[in-house]
């Protein structure tokens, strides 16, 4: 049975990458040692981490005045690292509350004693569209404005950025990094855990404008951007295997034509699924069409038991992990870079068939 994994994260990785890992795992470059066994200060790993950085810089067109860091602690770690490193002047950040991950970022800043103003929220509308800034952002008030560019749980994504004047933007790109094109110089800082589009869990990418960095003493070393920049992400032991796999994944993205090619594929996949959902009488996506995510498509039947029946019947046919996030329920198909169009076609065929067999529900 062909299996398609629609999990939100950790998520599907490219087959050729998994195969290359399998081939190389016992002995990296004929060394007789596994990538999991070698020193992070060895020439072999140095070549890997440098290639990973060079590939990411090239793919995302990252300007030279931005540092690229490989850290640990996931997106959640960055909810703390960003305010600790960057909220050093006003000790005050602004947040647009577009969903669960944005509100967690605000909560984590507050936990660290940094004020976080939620300027707008679409929570009362179940986050079915993105919040818009109520008025012009107050200047010289906030160290940055936090945005979650792709709301993994709620299935929305920013294509145009809110007006933010001179206040830097900090972007959580955890679930759409390298899946669609953004202009890095529009942001002060970008972060993403690898486990959605860039490989296995364990490494977190941070892209930060060096001009925003200062020597801040109160930052734990493991979260210190300035220190990581100085030490080329090798201050302490980095997640060697995860960086190796991330590098292979970036190589795969390059081979397929880079981010623009990824975005084209992701648009094709998601439009096909949204078009099906818009036609369907049983399955519905309630997200405002212009705010729809390319990578996380949420939908439901309106009946929790029936949603669960869909998840189970799909899994029996190799369409795995379609359950929506536990906080919202329903169904979710994550269509990250490594999900082929054939997976989306198989999903649509399955949903069409399921709908035919459940006409009773449609007619209610
Ligand atoms: C998954 C995710 C996170 C959390 O990532 P962890 O690595 O589990 O901490 C944060 N933000 C977004 C948008 C996510 O999709």
TrEMBL record:
It catalyses: O-phospho-L-serine + 2-oxoglutarate = 3-phosphooxypyruvate + L-glutamate; 4-(phosphooxy)-L-threonine + 2-oxoglutarate = (R)-3-hydroxy-2-oxo-4-phosphooxybutanoate + L-glutamate. GO terms for biological process: L-serine biosynthetic process. Its EC number is 2.6.1.52. It is an enzyme of class 2 (transferase). Pfam families: Aminotran_5. Its main location: cytoplasm. Its cofactor is pyridoxal 5'-phosphate. L-glutamate binds at residue 41. Pyridoxal 5'-phosphate binds at residues 75-76, 101, 152, 172, 195, 236-237. Keywords: Amino-acid biosynthesis, Aminotransferase, Cytoplasm, Pyridoxal phosphate, Serine biosynthesis, Transferase. GO terms for molecular function: O-phospho-L-serine:2-oxoglutarate aminotransferase activity; pyridoxal phosphate binding. Transmembrane segments: none annotated. Residues 3-347 form the Aminotransferase class V domain. The modification N6-(pyridoxal phosphate)lysine is found at residue 196. Catalyzes the reversible conversion of 3-phosphohydroxypyruvate to phosphoserine and of 3-hydroxy-2-oxo-4-phosphonooxybutanoate to phosphohydroxythreonine. PANTHER family: PHOSPHOSERINE AMINOTRANSFERASE. Belongs to the class-V pyridoxal-phosphate-dependent aminotransferase family. SerC subfamily. This is Phosphoserine aminotransferase. It comes from Lacticaseibacillus manihotivorans DSM 13343 = JCM 12514.
